[in-house]
Design a protein that fits this description.
It is built from 1 helix and 9 strands. The longest helix is centred in the first third of the chain and has 24 residues.
């Protein structure tokens, strides 16, 4: 009987320590890093670009944290006809404050983020009839950026999340309209 009680106490103590460790992983003082892929969508372009990047952050409490990201894209067509063509690519560098709401008794959470980012778009213009008019130029601006999304904690150490993101408007210095851009991303991150 005595060995049964000792075994039972050992199992209970081990369970409590495991639950405590898992609870600690979901709350304050938790860094994380991950990768993401998605779609970058500026206004008035022919094709959206494929985006990919890295992100990482630190949760100060179970709800509040800070997050940084770097996102880049492939080359995509902004315009293409018989006489001329324009391609673009983009880079986004951002720093955000985050808020997570964890739905009770599930691994599902809602995430919002708001901060500041630099949105840079590079354009390659090709004149198919007169190559002498070909040119490269870039636009960039820094401003308010953010996003809303849903995530799921696969394990206490790994999560996936889908987000809608908005990036800073790029103010045009010439006769062109200001350029708004947004995107969707799917990310996966590991918690340390």
């Amino acid at each position: 009987m005595k060995s049964l009680q000792e075994a039972l106490l050992a199992v209970i103590a081990g369970s409590v320590m495991t639950m405590s460790a898992q609870a600690a992983m979901n709350y304050a003082g938790q860094p994380y890093a991950g990768v993401k892929v998605g779609q970058y969508s500026p206004d008035d372009v022919k094709d959206d670009a494929v985006s990919y990047g890295v992100y990482g952050g630190y949760k100060f409490t179970s709800n509040f944290g800070i997050e940084a990201e770097y996102l880049t894209t492939n080359d995509a067509d902004a315009f293409n006809d018989s006489f001329e063509k324009s391609e673009y690519s983009a880079d986004v560098y951002g720093l955000y404050g985050t808020y997570d709401y964890v739905f009770p008794n599930t691994g599902l959470y809602a995430k919002g983020r708001l901060g500041i980012a630099k949105n840079k778009i590079e354009v390659d213009y090709t004149d198919k009839l007169f190559p002498v008019f070909n040119e490269n130029f870039s636009y960039s601006d820094t401003g308010v950026a953010g996003g809303l999304g849903l995530g799921y904690n696969i394990t206490p150490m790994a999560s996936v999340e889908a987000m809608y993101n908005f990036y800073p408007t790029i103010d045009s210095n010439d006769d062109r309209e200001d350029l708004d851009s947004n995107g969707i991303t799917l990310g996966a991150h590991y918690k340390f």
